[in-house]
Amino acid sequence: MAVDVDKENLPLHVAITMDGNGRWAQERKLPRTSGHDEGLRTAKRIVKAASDLGIKYLTLYVFSTENWKRAEQEVGFLMNLIHTHLCGELAFYKENGIRVRHIGNFDALPPQIRADIQEAIDDTKDFTGMTVNLAINYGGRDEIIRGIKKIINEKVPEDKIDEKTFSTYLDMPECPDVDLLIRTGGEQRLSNYLLWHVAYAEQIYTDTLWPDYSNDEFYSHIEAFQHRNRRFGAEKPAVKKGK
Ligand code: IPE
Ligand code: IPE
Ligand code: MG
What we know:
single chain; 243 residues; alpha/beta; 14% strand; binds 3-methylbut-3-enyl trihydrogen diphosphate; binds magnesium ion
């Protein structure tokens, strides 16, 4: 239960690396793709739990710029899963007032996926509940390079470039920095996720494989975040957490 979560002190922006689908399937002697199917169910459940809790921004690592290295069959399956989800689940986002956004290299995605993403963004743009950023074909370095190119193309004068303006050239200019980064699947690494945005994020790593990640574990991670002392380089904890 979410009983121990202090709803007045929620992280504003939670990011999740949903890892471990393949191993979950392998443990059950199933094809890796079954793990992705199950992982999608978990993602939907956690999106709902975060929205019900009152989280404002949730960013999910769906497919990285490095994931194209996988077998063609797995990549094809994942693209198809993204397509089916975006086309079939718009009602879910609407029911919950959730705004869908995309981060990542949009132009390099297959045309069908670009169309699906665009439709989801357009159909949910006026919703005022939680914002879900779907990181699809996302790489932190790629995001930074694309941002630099935009700045050069717009001939932004050097004295106008600071951390604040630079972040407006990245993929989620309207979102605050990540407060809490959760990674399932046991690996303790960033895997090129949100390199700019996690500068002062609290990080939680769990061995739980993504398909097994329960709402209760999610709530326990939010609660653990609430007990962290965030100092942002100062000698004392910042007064207000989650900002
Ligand atoms: C995460 O699960 C989903 C994607 C990267 C698309 P994995 O597919 O990486 O699962 P493991 O890490 O191999 O178990
Ligand atoms: C990170 O997981 C990407 C996603 C969850 C979409 P990976 O499984 O691709 O990361 P590595 O290869 O273990 O670093
Ligand atoms: Mg993995």
